[in-house]
């Protein structure tokens, strides 16, 4: 064979690679999209996922909605329903089927209603109609219950059945109204106004049974919301099933998931009350029995302590006699004391004490005068003695001593007047003014004649 250079063939994609790239291209090229169409080929396998086809008059597209998203959809759609879905464009690689992965589904036309719902919710919320501090407590137990609902619907039947079972003694007044359609909004507002004018009910249940969003829409109207917010009677919203949420639920003082639940919430359970009353009766009887027994014990104790009144009277009489005797004794003692006081007064009037006091005073005066006289006489004699001593001193030989003379005495004290009285060797004593001097005679010389 001739050798030829054939051009290199491009690498072929496998089907898996092709589908994977197409899927990646679709999912990255398209954002989430809203698609509206008629539901067909709807299936729900045991996995819980939904598989269906959306179609219009010309085309169709396969769709899948996984369990994590479809659990919130109520009610479950049916074959032939016109729906709107929000989802991502994708490809089921195993079969190469172009499909939409749905994340949300609602009946066609719901989008406008939902937008209106959200807008009104924001508006009334900003006005404070949903604020918790506006919520009033529901009176319990109520004296009178008012119900604003259809007189022919299942809601009034459920409410009356619950109330008849739980508290048949509480009166109920129905304020009939349409709960669906164009006239329902005005009817509901008028029924709420009428209930306030009657001024009978102290709690008002407002609601209806289940239905589609369109059926319940009158409870999302602004007029109804404002009528509930301005109602002077505490209100309970009981619209649809538990999954249904309306503007009325936000505005009312209390939301109940169903009409029956509303009746349960506002009414006391008669059987429970009877049970409590029976318990209270038993407790009251037991308490009364204990109290009676305690009083009986106290009575017996007091009876044992109670004394014979005759004995009490006797003791009182004896006590009275004692007091009488003591009183008479006291009176006699007082009389004796008065007589004694009189005698003492008379004795005091004749007592020598007064004379003795007078004489003692005189003696004290005389003693004072005597002392003064003695001192005066002694002073006079002292003066006379001093004068005489002075006179005596003038002529006294002692005065001569003061002038330098001396008195000589021998050893026996005899005054020596002549020299002849002395001999040499004699001891003599010379007395001078300020003392004496002892000397020995060595020579004697008599005066010449």
UniProtKB/TrEMBL annotation:
Alphabetical GO biological process terms: DNA catabolic process
A single cellular component GO annotation: cytoplasm
Enzyme Commission code: 3.1.11.6
GO MF annotation terms: exodeoxyribonuclease VII activity; nucleic acid binding
Domain Exonuclease VII large subunit C-terminal span(s) in chain numbering: 129-439
Coiled coil: 285-333
The protein's name in its UniProt record: Exodeoxyribonuclease 7 large subunit
